[in-house]
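Example record

The entry below shows one chain as it appears in the dataset: sequence first, then structure tokens.
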Amino acid sequence: MCIRVRWCGVVWAIGCAGAMFATSELGNAVGFPLVLNCSFLINSAWSILYYKEIQGTRNLRLFGGAFVLNVISSVLISLSKA
């Protein structure tokens, strides 16, 4: 248990450092929404695949729609920087 807690902290620190670097390189208007969108995608994948918090066909379809909209918004935000 103690080893898992330590690794979680390391992964969390790497993610935070990556978020800071991304925001500093892309700017606040682009970097911050991308960091939030990507964290939502990773958390939702853990929630559905590992913890199985969302169940039922209707709920999974609704969440899938939100997931797709989030990916589309991330792509559009990325293209706005170009």
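Notes for this example: The CA atoms of residues 54 and 74 lie 23 Å apart. The chain has a mean pLDDT of 87.
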